[in-house]
Design goal:
By secondary structure, the chain is mainly β. It has one domain. The chain is globular and about 50 Å long. The protein starts with 35 loop residues before the first strand and ends in a 5-residue tail after the last strand. This is Right handed beta helix domain-containing protein. Keywords: Signal.
Length: 334
């Protein structure tokens, strides 16, 4: 469980972020800092370089991009989003050249968004992002902490696109992105013990990269269901847990999740790398590639009788996550 986030009262002197061509607020009243950043093509995955710019942001009503809930993609798809093959740090997160405008945290160690339909575009949030509104969009942004839409036992909803989540160094044991109802594409999660958290309905995660860490006593996971709901799509992501030591699994879906599609992912590390148990409805695990011998105990520990399991393969990869060879089929084990 996440720790409760404090709510601050914003003073009357605070300003409202607006679009260049309008006055619709993109979030709660906040102040911007005078120093902005530009993402460098050589450091897009981990840092920013200083530049000077005017604070800008776009404000439109958000809408969820088309996903794959209506039908799983063909087995073995290896490219998607900005990535020619499987997602890497180079083709996920804030796009190179994006100018980021820093904001001042307005809710303790978090930046809180409470307006339905708000859009955050090109923002640098030097803490956590707390979403307490529906249909929020976050894109081309850097969040140095975690992102959550669950607050006081209420789940909200948002879309996050082409954004970087996590501190530039160290390890935050909290889940990077979660957890009530969200759509993610092109997201880079770095330096988090858990990558994605599934605790609600209608969650889709596509074309994203997760590099996991751990602190002593953690049970690190790439994606974990926690009192999960219905309709989870995990398609074409890279989940790398090889550098973490206090671990469970890159794919750990064991808690009350119904109707699950796990397709076309590249998976590395973990105790048992793919763990899918206790799920109801239609459960599909297809077209995934597992890095051979990257696990501690075994590649799979799942309830095979409840899973439509097909075309999953053991592979080897290079340092750029390019598949270099196919070792053989990956059967389901329970």
């Amino acid at each position: 469980m996440r720790h409760a986030l404090p709510i601050a009262v914003v003073g009357v002197a605070a300003m409202v972020l607006t679009a260049c061509t309008g006055s619709t607020p993109v979030a709660d009243p906040v102040s911007t800092t005078p120093s902005d950043t530009t993402v460098s093509s050589t450091t897009a995955a981990s840092s920013t370089t200083t530049s000077t710019s005017t604070t800008t942001s776009s404000t439109t009503t958000s809408s969820k991009p088309g996903g794959t809930s209506q039908g799983a993609p063909p087995p073995g798809r290896s490219g998607g989003g900005r990535c020619a093959a499987y997602p890497t740090p180079a083709c996920t997160g804030v796009p190179p050249g994006t100018k980021l405008s820093a904001v001042t945290l307005n809710s303790g160690d978090s930046y809180r968004v409470s307006q339905d339909g708000a859009v955050l575009d090109g923002m640098h949030i030097p803490g956590n992002l707390l979403i307490t509104a529906h249909n929020v969009t976050v894109r081309n942004s850097q969040i140095d902490g975690f992102v959550t839409d669950e607050y006081e036992n209420v789940d909200y909803s948002y879309t996050i696109l082409d954004s970087t989540v996590g501190p530039a160094s160290g390890c935050d044991s909290q889940p990077g992105v979660g957890e009530g109802s969200f759509y993610a594409r092109g997201v880079l999660i770095r330096n988090h013990g858990d990558g994605f958290r599934d605790s609600g309905n209608d969650i889709e995660i596509h074309d994203s990269y997760v590099h996991l860490c751990s602190n002593p006593g953690d049970h690190s996971d790439g994606i974990q269901s926690y009192q999960g709901g219905h309709n989870l799509v995990l398609d074409h992501n890279t989940l790398d847990q090889r550098d973490a030591t206090d671990i469970t699994a890159p794919i750990f879906l064991t808690d009350l999740t119904n109707t699950v599609s796990v397709t076309n992912n590249l998976v590395a590390g973990g105790t048992y790398s793919i763990q899918v148990k206790g799920a109801g409805g239609t459960v599909v695990v297809r077209g995934n590639r597992m890095v051979d011998k990257s696990w501690v105990y075994g590649p799979v520990e799942s309830e095979c009788g409840n899973i439509q399991w097909s075309d999953n393969t053991l592979v080897t990869i290079d340092s750029n996550y390019t598949v270099t060879s196919t070792v053989g089929p990956l059967p389901c084990h329970g």
